[in-house]
Design goal:
The complex is a heterodimer. Chain A is mostly helical. The radius of gyration of chain A is 24 Å and the shape is globular. Chain B is built from 22 helices and 23 strands. The chains are: A mainly alpha, B alpha/beta. Chains A and B meet through helix 1, helix 9 and helix 10 of A and helix 3 and helix 7 of B.
């Protein structure tokens, strides 16, 4: 167990190192010049060169990357070019909001997706199943900004049940979390349905029936724990997709998270912030996968951590 | 059972049972008009080949038929109650308490994510209002009753930690925990090794004697029938063709189908009776294995290096002579199939393998391809071995295509010739695998193996999945082909009777090593190694008169072939007992 964790952590660090390098190279070769953005249109060539030297952007790429890494291991993610503040403090101010939104979104997508998937599997081939699967298809295909605006219009503007935007109370969280969760719930309901159908065909379900167990016990004690195993691995991978969705949802609902921060930074080529947000997202994905790998052996005794 | 029991009212009385499947709105019978009685304490075997309706009958009794299958006529009276007329709720109460069932596949019949203890106690608590603690005690007792060592520890274990035989014991414990009046055993030992099969059958018999449970034994194996059943119902294509006491059915079968079925059953000793002299030793064997080992790495340490190795094959040497059938027998996990894989270059091996004088070499694509010219395989499951989307004619011609032999017309002509040779017709070449029966598919696989005119055909459990009558015909075909074309077979099987019938020489494998090797008569007629004796003794004899003549051997688990990196299991040297009869010391 300890050895397994140690190896996984070393792997995680290597992955993050790779992510940082690739992102750095991509940003370096970007045609947009961050210095022009900082200096403004009217700046002279001399001013531009001064700023460039001041930020160290005149150095070779590898030297710049080395400096960045050296800062990173000390917890220094650099300073924003435009906001003149530490990237780490910008991110840490906004991270709780994003984590809250992410937790809400995952909860929504699992609650909706798994429930509908199980229901569809039980009534497979019947009209209810077919209806649910069409609905899930719509959920998967609907763009998040459309879903977000639609929910806002109906539940905030027309019905007035939830605030239109902002952050602070539990009521503020509902619409963004549902918007974020709806697409995933479509995926999960389909996956859960096929996983459940597969499990219900297994010999041990027949054994459970031959023992004279009730239908409910067969479903919840025998089928569900087996059917959920492949789903857990998916959740880890899914966090990556979630990060993309958060950028959209945060701007639709004015949610003060790192998605918005990233969006503004990309528009203004604020490289330290882009780097910082990318690293934080990558860490979240790596941790999500690690968590999924730790949870799976707790449910499935056949899988050992090694 | 005894004559006295026959006079009593039957426990189960099945009258005119018809089970039908709804197929595009029409009811098509799977089982038609079945009648039989079962008395308390009696064992009734329902015997038949695949498609005979024997399993459907058992599912109908349990009320576990698939959704589109229903009991369309007749009665199943258990103590006077018609099971077919009960509501699902009443049936549920009966299942597990009055009628219990054990299934063919012990490996998949237990829930992998729950402990043995949980699965046993819930079976008890589903029917008896007892405390968790009481139920656990009863469950532990049930495990003790099926002679599982250390029952307390087993309660906390998961199914994957137990061997197949142990899992089937758990299934039996679960089925018998509530002392049901009727136990249905659907092919309970088919998936088990022969020695384990013997243990499980002995156990079932003893438990039946202790508890007085009536047993319906569903099986295709006439040997198992002869050893366990009081009475037999023989079924074919959904109908009962004959029923009666076991001894009468075996001694004087009335229906022609029963006679054919019994004639097709392979019997130990039959090979010896029609023996032909084995091909002599020649300077160049078809295949020569010298000190061959196959190991697989498993586990991982801190830096991801493997920590253990599975020693699947350990220092095996033998020759296959031109024109002979060389048998390789042993129980599951003994390494016999791994040898086939090493021979064909599918897994890396240590030691030296020569086929037709050329060393098997996995280093290059060309070398691997060249090896296939002389050597082909016929696998166990013909459905899985044929591409479902490829016409069978193309499948047979494909080896020629891969090796660039002839043009399209020549290849098709060769395929047609092969089709006719294996007993199929030319016009069947444009069909797909699903349009054929299991036996026909295996003929197609044989034709494909013959396409390149190999000198060695490896038959890895090639007839194990077939019904006995089909099996007999495929074996006959293989013999004819050998006589005609003169190639050699490496015949790998767990079925001792089949092997005795077809081989010239045979090697017995145990834990990755050969423990005994020699001619058929040496090994089967005069077995020297205790393991050979043990598996031969365990083969069920399809003759009720010989029942109870076997000396029961104590249950034993096979040790693990997994060893820490760097350590090797000891190689057991073989000693010549005379005339090439080699026995491990």
């Amino acid at each position: 167990m300890a050895g397994y964790l140690l190896r996984r952590i070393v792997q995680a660090v290597l992955i993050l190192l790779g992510v940082s390098f690739i992102t750095f190279v991509l940003l370096y070769v970007l045609p947009a010049d961050p210095v022009r953005q900082i200096a403004g249109r009217s700046a002279t060539q001399q001013t531009v060169e001064n700023i460039r030297a001041q930020l160290g952007l005149d150095q070779p790429m590898l030297v710049q990357y080395g400096r960045y890494l050296a800062g990173l291991v000390q917890g220094d993610m650099g300073r924003s070019y435009l906001q003149k503040t530490e990237v780490s403090s910008l991110i840490s101010a906004r991270l709780p909001a994003s984590l809250l939104l992410m937790a809400g979104g995952i909860l929504c997508e699992l609650a909706i997706g798994l429930t509908l998937g199980v229901i569809a599997a039980i009534w497979r081939g019947r009209p209810l199943d077919q209806g649910l699967m069409v609905t899930s298809f719509v959920a998967v295909s609907a763009p998040q900004f459309v879903v977000g605006l639609l929910l806002l219009y109906v539940f905030a503007v027309q019905l007035g049940w939830f605030p239109i935007g902002g952050y602070g109370t539990a009521a503020h969280l509902v619409l963004p979390a549902v918007t974020l969760g709806i697409m995933g719930s479509g995926w999960y309901s389909r996956m859960m349905r096929s996983s459940m159908i597969e499990v219900l065909r297994q010999d041990y379900i027949r054994t459970a029936r031959a023992k004279g167990l009730t239908r409910g016990r067969i479903l919840f004690r025998h089928a569900l724990p087996n059917a959920i195993l492949p789903i857990i691995a998916m959740i880890g991978i899914d966090i990556g997709i979630f990060m993309g969705g958060m950028v959209v949802v945060e701007s639709v609902f004015g949610w003060p998270g790192i998605g918005q921060l990233a969006w503004q930074a990309i528009q203004r080529v604020d490289i330290p912030i882009i780097m910082g947000v990318t690293m934080v997202s990558a860490t979240a994905i790596v941790l999500g996968n690690l968590l999924a790998d730790i949870v799976t052996p707790l449910i499935d005794p056949r899988i050992k951590m090694r | 059972m005894s004559v006295a029991d026959q006079g009593k009212a039957p426990l189960l009385s099945v009258r005119g049972l018809t089970v039908s499947v709804r197929d595009r709105g029409v009811l098509r019978p799977l089982v038609a008009d079945l009648d039989f009685d079962l008395h308390p304490g009696e064992t009734l075997a329902i015997a038949g080949e695949s498609g005979s309706g024997k399993s459907i009958t058992s599912l109908a009794l349990m009320g576990l038929l698939p959704n589109n299958v229903t009991v369309s006529a007749g009665q199943m009276l258990l103590d006077g109650t018609d099971l077919g007329a009960l509501s699902e709720a009443r049936l549920r109460e009966m299942r597990g308490s009055r009628i219990a069932m054990i299934f063919q596949e012990p490996m998949t019949s237990l829930n992998p994510v729950q402990t043995i203890g949980t699965q046993l106690t819930e079976a008890i608590r589903a029917h008896e209002p007892v405390s968790r603690r009481k139920a656990r005690q009863a469950a532990t007792e049930a495990l003790r009753q099926v002679r599982i060592p250390e029952p307390e520890r087993r309660m906390g274990q998961y199914p994957h930690e137990l061997s197949g035989g142990m899992r089937q014991r758990v299934m039996i414990a679960m089925a018998l925990a509530l002392r049901p009046a009727l136990l249905i055993a659907d092919e309970p030992t088919t998936a088990l090794d022969v020695t384990v099969q013997q243990e499980v059958l002995d156990l079932l018999r003893d438990l039946q004697r202790e508890t007085g449970t009536a047993v319906i034994l569903i099986t295709h194996d006439m040997g198992v029938v002869a050893e366990t059943a009081d009475r037999v119902v023989v079924m074919q294509a959904g109908r009962m063709v004959e029923s009666g006491p076991t001894a009468r059915i075996f001694d004087a079968p009335r229906a022609s189908y029963t006679r054919e079925l019994l004639a097709a059953v392979p019997r130990l000793g039959a090979g010896r009776l029609r023996a032909m002299p084995a091909p002599p030793e020649t300077p160049q064997p078809v295949a020569r294995l010298t000190d061959v080992s196959v190991r697989f790495d498993i586990g991982a340490n801190l830096i991801g290096r493997p920590t253990h190795q599975v020693h699947a094959v350990n220092g095996v040497s033998f020759d296959i002579r031109p024109g002979e059938t060389f048998g390789l027998v042993g129980e599951s996990g003994c390494g016999k199939s791994t040898i086939a894989k090493a021979l064909t270059g599918l897994v890396p091996h240590g030691g030296r393998i020569e086929v037709q004088g050329a060393v098997i070499d996995r280093s290059s694509r060309a070398a691997r391809k060249a090896g296939c010219r002389d050597m082909q395989m016929v696998f166990q499951d013909p459905m899985a071995a044929l591409d479902p989307r490829m016409k069978v004619g193309d499948a047979v011609a494909e080896p020629l295509l891969i090796h660039g032999i002839g043009d399209h017309a020549a290849r098709q002509a060769r395929a047609a010739e092969l089709f006719e040779r294996v007993g199929l017709t030319r016009d069947q070449m444009s069909r797909y695998p699903h349009e054929f029966s299991g036996g026909q598919r295996q003929r197609i696989c044989v034709a494909r193996a013959l396409a390149l005119k190999p000198r060695l055909i490896i038959c890895d459990e090639s007839v194990s999945a077939l019904d006995v009558s089909v099996q007999a015909r495929v074996l006959t075909l293989l013999e004819e082909l050998k006589a005609e074309l003169g190639m050699s077979y490496l015949f790998i099987s767990h079925d001792m009777a089949v092997v005795e019938n077809v081989v010239d020489r045979v090697a017995v494998m145990y834990l990755g090593q050969i423990v005994e090797m020699g001619s058929r008569d040496q090994v089967f007629g005069d077995p020297r190694h205790p393991y050979t004796k043990r598996i031969l003794n365990a083969v069920p004899v399809p003759d009720p008169a010989q029942r109870g003549m076997r000396v029961p051997s104590p249950p034993r688990e096979i040790p693990s072939p997994i060893h820490p990196m760097g350590t090797r299991p000891a190689s057991v040297p073989l000693r010549d007992m005379g005339e090439g009869h080699l026995v491990a010391q």
